[in-house]
Amino acid sequence: MGVAELVTDDLVAAYSRDGAVCLRQAFGPEWIAKLAAGIECNIAEPSDRGRFWDRDADGRTTFYDSQSWLHIPEYRDFAFRSDMAEIAGRLMEVEAVNFFFDAVFVRSAGTQFRTPFHQDEPYWSVEGFDTCSAWMPLVPVERASTLEFVAGSHRWTQKFRQENFGALTGDDRDRVEFDDDVVPFPDIEGNRDDYEVLGWAMEPGDVVVFNARIVHGGSGNLAPDRELKVFNTQWLGDDVRVLFRPEGMDPDNSAVMTEVGLSSGDRIGTDLYPELWRREPANA
pTM score, two decimals? Predict the structure, then answer.
């Protein structure tokens, strides 16, 4: 099935309305095997951004790394050769798509750490509505352990004080200090009946694509015999501009962006954030 058949008009409308959609069997077993091999290499040779979080008394952990496509060829192949860039572009209804970064999350079986509800884009070194993440588990995921989304929250105009993940993980590289005068983040978990919360049980090959401004959280509470391996990619569209945020960024790309000549207000680009898809012009 080609991307045009996979990304139907109904899915595009749902993505615009809800901010998150699940595409079933978007990627074949060859991609799953390749990315699984890449993750094993990544754990063995993490980048300087890699770390282990949430180590509990039983030794269970969450491994995280980002922008590892620079040294993991399997990740680079997926970004450059898979259909993901086109899927992102068609869902966002943009003219062109740039690759931003990859992120991997590997949770030990039985891990009981639920990621708090938050938005992604306020942490990033860019700003714009035309952003999306592709959350792609490489193992089966039960509904109780999946990522959850507050439908329509990507279009909320209120800015919130986001979670300081550095306080949760104990790693200063995750620290982003939002001003106290910003509106506190809504208590989604304590008032779930007030919101439409989306989530999907998933199989390898499925992918959830979501706007980086949507409120989301979860992907924890694993059964004793269930681990979680997720390969996540981030994609940027037409209205995105570089933004170095005074409250901090996670991941903080300001240093590498500056090295390649990017500064706040610039369009994203360069070999570090390559354009990987452009919509073909309509026939005259």
Answer: 0.91
